[in-house]
């Protein structure tokens, strides 16, 4: 590590073979020798220990208590949020090593620990599958012994891995009596190594329970293997301070039956007594009794009345009839029906059956909510096979059902494929396993580490594998821009991932135990979360609960992309062999009918955006049937709302659903993000993040039945209604113009209109399917109280996990939802209900009193809407959010009609929305008074509307352009509305580009019928330019901060850790023949070494890692074709352009996410119901005032902690040892931008000339290298930095150096990164405390 303080001057270091000491000596040279940077401020020195990663100071990361968690007595001011944030800023950063280039010549144990390669991950997965049900324990043992000494593998082997080996050895001893002693010896030998510390892991509760099990099974045998008695094992347990309560779930986990479980409990109790701890015996047996008491019978839950349909019943069997669309309907039998009965439609019946199990289980499970929810989280494939079987049985009732393809539904065909594929897989997997076993027994295959599919394909039964591959492929149809098909690579990975997920789900169901039921803060709702004592309690509770679950976790090693591809390829290949469809045709001349069996799936190639891609195409007959039948009905939703409060988040993968595993963060193929999250969690820095997600997850919801009934009536009519599309597309197809054949422009316009019509028609079908899915879920949860478990994206923004139906959906989804708990309105609540109705209708830019009066002025319309929503005047349909408006009309009418409106129990969520929340944060960061006034941070009598203000600025600019004769201005004059510019203004602070702004405006113009489609493009381009210019003039402070963000990110992404410089230099010391230019010159190596992502920490302790790296693909051979995948375990260099452009919006998103989390925690402390949609906060009408105070106080406290200064300090600490190549300063306008931002950089003339000459040489070499390397395709780079290439061609216009240059030696020159970080933009005079007095900050 290179230690560098914050100095006014920075120094350049040559890279031609410097050691760490040389670098350190170079950095101590005087400022005027090589370079001068004057940033106008001084900084204190940072010690080597404080700047080093915490994980660098210890062999492996260990849990520790955060520094701000104190144990001394706390003062009353300790609960103040500002004080808490200041204490939090003193907490050491979460720092892990930067990933190494894939061709690095050396690695460290720390890198091996955090970033294992794919091969190591595959080895652990092979061991996992071989141990599963003792599939091949000898092979797993051989791999285990051969690889556990390798750094890259041993760091993946934890205590759970060792426990699974112990359990497998014990099972082998029970199954194979002839080799019993051998396996028992292996078991006790491995345990003793763990106990004596000879292995890298230590025993846990499960370890000792397993060994107690081994002793119980074999102590009476004739075996001579030395073992420990239960008394000795209990002594070891007590010596390690393992909680006794954690032993109980382990007994349930490892025992084969209840009898053996009770025997283990008895042996442990006896051991406690023998060691002289009778009080612990009582404690242990009492805990066991508490577990058993959960099974007591409870009272019956009310049964939900389902939606029914009439069915006449007069015969034993119901007659069915095939519809033209391939669906089945039951028809009334001939004759008089003796009785009319009700029946639930099958699609709902299957879902209802799932829920009915949960209801019925209440009789025996009662308050065991975990068990009730477990029944709901059953396999989607179990439900799917039941549905396919039902369709098949129904089909058998039809007459002549095989006369044509039209007589078979898609699901009936899928059932046939399933039967054929199940048989095929059973035979093929059996043959594969026999071959692998024979090769091993005959020592043909001496490579024990080889990837063999037999163990992976044996994890699930063939019939389930068959359903997985069929359903996953059918649901991928039409994705990736492939018509009637899908990309092959995506299909194989999806199928492989589905097999892995189903295996993990079955493992969870098999070994699942009730999770701890504590909810952070539930017992202390009146206490602040922001005292040191509260944080300490949260941390202690989570660690205790996590330890209780650790013992119950079996090894579920993640599969690499290679494994998923191989598994998916095997299954897809088998399906393509057996899946056929019978097609028919008729000879038009003879009338003779011909039939032919054709493959249902075929492999082909297509060119997409110039790239040749392997695709899987559906047979046209299957594609046609798929467009008419719904596969969605076949599959039970993977993730539904929960009937009980979700599990509290205990760790990165422990929380939310009971069985279905969900990660707390949504990240895609970014190992670095996962590593940082795991490290921060293990260090106890995410307690408030977990607690905030728990608050959001614990909000109860119900379906608004009044709205549901209206939606259902509209839906069943099949007509277009608001944004509900019609069942049959009702827009006429465009008619070709008269001069279609003679006028090329008219022809082009017609083709464009026809294309748009076809897209709208396809979108109509897609949107109707989407709404249908929401209604099905809402119908199932009628009269139920349910919850939405939450997780977050990598920026910390919270989202409900159920994807199809939640309160973050559209207006229809929100209108269908209400809170599960009711609260009296009170006088304030009744007023806020009126204001809320005005906001929803669109009258939201007036004062609060005017909004309330607006509702009273339209009270007659409110009553008419509530009483006759479809047959009345339909005033509610004119609202901006019509379905939510209707729900509010119904709620307000019910309140006013009640005996005492103030006592009316209201369940309707009422919103408080930020005014362009991103700009609000920018205005607070920069103290921008003008910007603050536009986004309601300042105190005003009426709310400001920045969107209307920008629209007026745009109108003025258009008027000037009209006077100049600008065509686009004349076409758009008088047509600019607030809605046209709203999205662009809103997303400007999130980094929207000109192209993005143009597309946003074009979407808005598409809704205007008075703008011809042929003029939309040029008009939207014109409006986008004018809008961006107007915003830049209005929010100058925000633009300055954005520039600072972008420059910092650019510097970081181009930097290199000092510890990598010595190895990097060795690549450039190759001796070359005269006259030849090496492609592996030092400059190319620098690009490979740029592995540094932009990372920062939120005020809640969450590390944010930007995942943007260049995409490098790896070739893998499969049964179908060779495919290229991006391996997340082999990170490539960062994409500097994306790192820079994405940092400003990502930072602001992390800031608004932190504000939301802080508000959620404050509301929970005050017992306020809380839900959020990013910058829209929801609660009951009666608690709006209380929530509003929390919103303002948390915003003020957050921005009073000097967010930008904290960020700058973190950059200087986190990247203290990083070096920046001087030549990168001359790429594009970086040097000029840094000087404009306040960095007074002076370069000697020879340094400048050397850098420019080197860039020019690199450009020539790069061109020559690209011509020579065109045929090298084993590793592809699809994501090139085009902007870097463009910038390198720009002329270099630099101010003259201000000091005489000094002679410089060395090929490459570097400067300390921290010395290039520009000074923060000057802050304005706006006081953020003013926000507390702003009425319309959130309104």
UniProtKB/TrEMBL annotation:
Subcellular location field: Mitochondrion
Domain of life: Eukaryota
Key words of the record: DNA-directed RNA polymerase, Mitochondrion, Nucleotidyltransferase, Transcription, Transferase, Transit peptide
DNA-directed RNA polymerase N-terminal domain residues: 371-698
Broad class of where this protein is predominantly found: mitochondrion
Biased composition (Acidic residues): 1267-1287
InterPro entries hit by this protein: DNA-dir_RNA_pol_helix_hairp_sf (IPR024075), DNA-dir_Rpol_C_phage-type (IPR046950), DNA-dir_Rpol_phage-type (IPR002092), DNA/RNA_pol_sf (IPR043502), RNA_POL_N_sf (IPR037159), RPOL_N (IPR029262), TPR-like_helical_dom_sf (IPR011990)
Reaction catalysis annotation: RNA(n) + a ribonucleoside 5'-triphosphate = RNA(n+1) + diphosphate
Pfam families for this protein: RNA_pol, RPOL_N
GO CC, alphabetical: mitochondrial DNA-directed RNA polymerase complex
Example GO biological process: mitochondrial transcription
Keyword hit for Transferase: yes
Renumbered residue ranges of the record's region Disordered: 1259-1305
Molecular function, one GO term: DNA-directed RNA polymerase activity
E.C. no: 2.7.7.6
Family recorded in the similarity comment: Belongs to the phage and mitochondrial RNA polymerase family.
Purpose of the protein: DNA-dependent RNA polymerase catalyzes the transcription of DNA into RNA using the four ribonucleoside triphosphates as substrates.
Name under which the protein is recorded: DNA-directed RNA polymerase
Native organism: Clathrus columnatus
Taxonomy of the source species: Eukaryota, Fungi, Dikarya, Basidiomycota, Agaricomycotina
């Amino acid at each position: 590590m290179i230690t560098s303080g914050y100095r006014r001057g920075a120094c350049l270091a040559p890279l031609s073979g410097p050691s760490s000491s040389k670098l350190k000596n170079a950095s101590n040279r005087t400022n005027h020798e090589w370079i001068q940077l004057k940033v106008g401020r001084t900084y204190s020195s940072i010690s080597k220990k404080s700047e080093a990663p915490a994980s660098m100071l210890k062999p492996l990361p260990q849990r520790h208590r955060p520094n701000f968690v104190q144990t001394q007595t706390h003062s009353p001011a300790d609960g103040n949020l500002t004080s808490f944030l200041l204490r939090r800023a003193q907490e050491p950063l979460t720092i892990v090593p930067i990933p190494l280039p894939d061709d690095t010549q050396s690695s460290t144990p720390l890198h091996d620990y955090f970033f294992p390669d794919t091969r190591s991950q595959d080895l652990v997965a092979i061991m996992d599958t071989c141990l599963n049900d003792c599939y091949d324990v000898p092979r797993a043992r051989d791999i285990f012994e051969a690889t556990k000494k390798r750094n890259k593998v041993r760091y993946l082997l934890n205590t759970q891995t060792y426990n699974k080996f112990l359990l497998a050895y014990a099972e082998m001893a029970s199954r194979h009596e002839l080799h019993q002693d051998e396996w028992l010896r292996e078991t006790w030998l491995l345990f003793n190594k763990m106990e004596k510390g000879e292995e890298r892991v230590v025993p846990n509760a499960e370890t000792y329970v397993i060994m107690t099990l081994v002793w119980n099974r074999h102590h009476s045998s004739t075996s001579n293997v030395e073992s420990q008695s239960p008394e000795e094992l209990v002594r070891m347990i007590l010596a390690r301070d393992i909680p006794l309560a954690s032993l109980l779930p382990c007994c349930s986990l490892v025992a084969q039956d209840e009898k053996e479980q009770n025997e283990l409990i008895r042996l442990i109790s006896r051991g406690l007594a023998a060691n002289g701890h009778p009080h612990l015996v009582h404690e242990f047996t009492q805990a066991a009794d508490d577990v058993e008491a959960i099974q007591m019978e409870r009272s019956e839950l009310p049964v939900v009345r389902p939606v029914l349909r009439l069915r006449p019943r007069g015969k034993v069997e119901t007659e069915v009839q095939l519809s033209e669309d391939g669906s089945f309907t039951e028809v009334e039998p001939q004759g008089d029906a003796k009785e009319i009965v009700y029946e639930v439609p099958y699609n709902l019946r299957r879902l209802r059956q799932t829920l009915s199990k949960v209801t019925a289980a209440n009789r025996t499970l009662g308050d065991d909510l975990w068990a009730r929810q477990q029944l709901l989280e059953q396999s989607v494939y179990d439900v799917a096979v039941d549905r396919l079987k039902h369709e098949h049985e129904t089909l058998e009732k039809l007459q002549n059902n095989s006369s044509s393809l039209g007589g078979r539904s898609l699901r009936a065909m899928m059932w046939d494929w399933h039967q054929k594929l199940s048989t095929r897989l059973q035979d093929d997997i059996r043959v594969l396993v026999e071959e692998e076993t024979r090769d091993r027994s005959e020592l043909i295959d001496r490579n024990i580490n080889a990837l063999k599919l037999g163990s992976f394909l044996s994890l699930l039964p063939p019939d389930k594998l068959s359903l997985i591959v069929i359903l996953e492929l059918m649901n991928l149809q039409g994705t990736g821009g492939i018509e009637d098909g899908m990309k092959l690579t995506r299909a194989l990975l999806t199928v492989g991932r589905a097999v892995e997920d189903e295996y993990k789900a079955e493992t969870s169901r098999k070994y699942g135990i009730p999770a701890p039921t504590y909810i952070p803060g539930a017992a202390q709702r009146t206490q602040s979360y922001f005292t040191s004592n509260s944080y300490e309690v949260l941390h202690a509770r989570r660690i205790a609960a996590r330890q209780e679950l650790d013992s119950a976790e079996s090894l579920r090693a993640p599969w690499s992309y290679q494994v998923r591809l191989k598994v998916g390829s095997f299954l897809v290949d088998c399906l393509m062999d057996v899946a056929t469809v019978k097609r028919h045709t008729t000879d038009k001349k003879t009338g003779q009918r011909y039939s032919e069996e054709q493959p249902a799936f075929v492999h082909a190639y297509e060119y997409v955006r110039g790239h040749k891609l392997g695709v899987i195409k559906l047979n046209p007959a299957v594609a046609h049937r798929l467009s008419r039948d719904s596969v969605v009905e076949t599959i039970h939703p993977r993730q539904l709302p929960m009937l009980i409060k979700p599990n509290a988040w205990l760790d990165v993968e422990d929380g939310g659903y009971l069985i279905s595993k969900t990660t707390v963060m949504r990240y895609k193929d970014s190992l670095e993000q996962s590593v940082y999250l795991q490290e921060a969690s293990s260090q106890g820095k995410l307690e408030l993040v977990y607690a905030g997600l728990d608050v959001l997850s614990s909000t109860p919801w119900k379906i608004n039945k009044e709205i549901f009934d209206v939606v259902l009536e509209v839906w069943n009519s099949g007509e277009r209604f608001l944004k509900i599309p019609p069942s049959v597309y009702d827009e006429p197809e465009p008619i070709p113009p008269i001069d279609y054949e003679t006028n090329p422009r008219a022809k082009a316009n017609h083709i464009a209109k026809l294309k748009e019509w076809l897209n709208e028609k396809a979108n109509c079908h897609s949107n109707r399917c989407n709404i249908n899915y929401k209604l099905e879920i809402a119908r199932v949860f009628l009269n139920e109280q349910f919850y939405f478990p939450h997780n977050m994206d990598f920026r910390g923004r919270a989202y409900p996990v159920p994807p199809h139906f939640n309160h973050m959906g559209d207006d229809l989804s929100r209108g269908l939802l209400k809170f599960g708990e009711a609260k009296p309105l009170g006088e304030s609540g009744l007023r806020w209900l009126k204001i809320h109705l005005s906001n929803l209708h669109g009258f939201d830019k007036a004062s609060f009193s005017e909004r309330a009066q607006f509702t009273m002025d339209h009270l007659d319309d409110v009553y008419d809407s509530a009483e006759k929503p479809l047959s009345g005047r339909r005033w509610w349909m004119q609202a901006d959010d019509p379905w939510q408006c209707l729900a509010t009309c119904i709620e307000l009418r019910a309140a006013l009609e009640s005996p005492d409106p103030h006592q009316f129990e209201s369940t309707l969520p009422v919103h408080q929305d930020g005014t362009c929340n991103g700009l609000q944060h920018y205005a607070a960061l920069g103290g921008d008074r003008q910007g603050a006034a536009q986004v309601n941070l300042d105190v005003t009598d009426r709310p400001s509307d920045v969107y209307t203000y920008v629209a007026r600025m745009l109108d003025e600019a258009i008027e000037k352009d009209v006077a100049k004769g600008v065509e686009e201005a004349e076409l758009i004059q008088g047509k600019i509305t607030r809605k046209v510019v709203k999205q662009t203004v809103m997303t400007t602070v999130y980094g929207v580009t000109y192209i993005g702004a143009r597309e946003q405006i074009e979407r808005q113009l598409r809704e205007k019928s008075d703008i011809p489609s042929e003029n939309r493009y040029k008009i939207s381009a014109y409006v986008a330019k004018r809008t961006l210019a107007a915003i830049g003039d209005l929010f100058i402070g925000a633009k300055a901060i954005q520039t600072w963000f972008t420059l910092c990110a650019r510097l970081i992404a181009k930097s290199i850790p000092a510890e990598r410089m010595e190895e990097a230099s060795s690549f450039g010391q190759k001796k070359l023949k005269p006259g030849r230019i090496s492609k592996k010159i030092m400059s190319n190596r620098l690009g490979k070494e740029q592995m540094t992502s932009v990372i920062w920490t939120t005020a809640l302790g969450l590390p944010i890692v930007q995942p943007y790296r260049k995409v490098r693909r790896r070739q893998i051979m499969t049964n179908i074709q060779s495919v290229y995948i991006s391996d997340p375990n082999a990170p490539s260099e960062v994409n500097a352009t994306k790192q820079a452009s994405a940092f400003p919006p990502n930072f602001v998103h992390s800031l608004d996410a932190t504000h939301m989390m802080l508000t959620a925690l404050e509301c929970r402390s005050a017992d306020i119901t809380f839900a959020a949609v990013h910058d829209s906060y929801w609660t009951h009408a009666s608690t709006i005032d209380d929530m509003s105070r929390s919103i303002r106080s948390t915003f003020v406290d957050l921005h009073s902690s000097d967010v930008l200064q904290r960020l700058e300090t973190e950059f200087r600490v986190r990247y203290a040892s990083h070096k920046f190549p001087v030549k990168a300063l001359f790429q594009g306008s970086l040097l000029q931008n840094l000087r404009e931002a306040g960095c007074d950089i002076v370069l000697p003339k020879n340094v400048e000339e050397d850098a420019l000459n080197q860039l020019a040489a690199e450009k020539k070499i790069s061109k020559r290298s690209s011509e020579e390397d065109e045929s090298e395709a084993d590793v592809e780079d699809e994501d090139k930095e085009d902007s870097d290439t463009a910038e390198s061609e720009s002329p270099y216009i630099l101010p003259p150096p201000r000091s005489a240059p000094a002679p410089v030696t060395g090929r490459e020159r570097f400067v300390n990164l921290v010395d290039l970080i520009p000074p923060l933009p000057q802050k304005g005079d706006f006081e953020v405390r003013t926000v507390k007095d702003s009425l319309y900050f959130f309104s």
